Amino acid sequence: MKTRFVLVLLAGLLASAALTAQTRISGTLSCTRPDPAHSIEVGDTAASVMNLVKVPCTWSKGFDMAGLAVKDGYSVAASEVRGGKTKEHGIHVGTMANGDKYSVHFQGAGTVKPDHSGNAAGSWTFDGGTGKLKALTGKGTYKTTANADGTSTSEIEGEYKLP
């Protein structure tokens, strides 16, 4: 009887662990030139600039969540550029193949050259979504390479959880 109880308890614990398990994801997000893009010079001695942009993106190497393929999205980001260094934060809204959406907050830092090329790295967290992704949670990291023509590519890694 004790053995049966332990087996039932163990099976229950394994099942609950499987239901709350995090699922690894990775992909490559390719973004076009920002539209719109606003830039304001601060006017301090460090030649600081504040930027606000909206950037359309597609997944050149995507992933699945809840059995749905990730499709495209956009990021709205603010950045401060000071002396060749940048700090950024923003929100990415993504769309799955069936139309469900998810939201991500991100923040990072990097370097930028006078031709506007550069690199940044940071972290992100899922903030939920719609449809099958309604209770989406998770987190991860990103590494972005920005090109002088305004395009960029981000390598994304992380994990997500759905109830």
Structure, described:
The two termini are 32 Å apart. This protein has an eight-stranded antiparallel β-barrel with strand order 1-3-5-6-7-8-9-10. The chain is built from one helix and ten strands; from the N terminus they run αββββββββββ. The protein has a single domain, classed as Beta Barrel (AOC barrel-like), CATH 2.40.350. The relative contact order is 0.19. It is mainly β and 163 residues long. A hairpin with a 2-residue loop joins β4 (64-65) and β5.
Low-confidence stretches: 1-20
- The name of the CATH superfamily reads SO1590-like
Q: Helix count, per DSSP? A: 1
Mean pLDDT: 89
Q: How are the strands ordered across the major sheet?
A: 1-3-5-6-7-8-9-10
Strand content: over 45%
What string gives the helices and strands in order?
Answer: HEEEEEEEEEE
CATH topology: AOC barrel-like
At the first level of CATH, the class is Mainly Beta
Structural class: mainly beta
Largest sheet, in brief, is:
8 strands, antiparallel, barrel
For the record, the CATH architecture stands as Beta Barrel
User: What's the gyration radius in Å?
Assistant: 20 Å
The helix content, as a percent range, equals 10-25%
